[in-house]
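Title: Prediction job returns without error message
Component: structure pipeline
Severity: low
Priority: P3
Assignee: unassigned

Description:
Job completed but the reporter wants confirmation the result is attached to the right record. Sequence as submitted:
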Amino acid sequence: MELSSLLPLALYGAIFGAYFVVVPIILMLYFKARWYKTGAWERAFLCFTVFFFFPGLLVVSPFFNFRPQVRSLG
């Protein structure tokens, strides 16, 4: 294969990886750090990013667990 035919394939692969893996992981970590501290504009922007990167968040979300730790009541 020639380099000219591999370049678009590599570019599409990089875009695919960024959209479905890299940006959603960064967003999930940002959500965890800032969810209860955001203002109105930041929360609106976060909701927009969820709408925009929804397919990638669906791919990444099963690998994250943000539930609180179990408390001992005794």
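Comment from assignee: result matches the submitted record. The mean pLDDT is 89.
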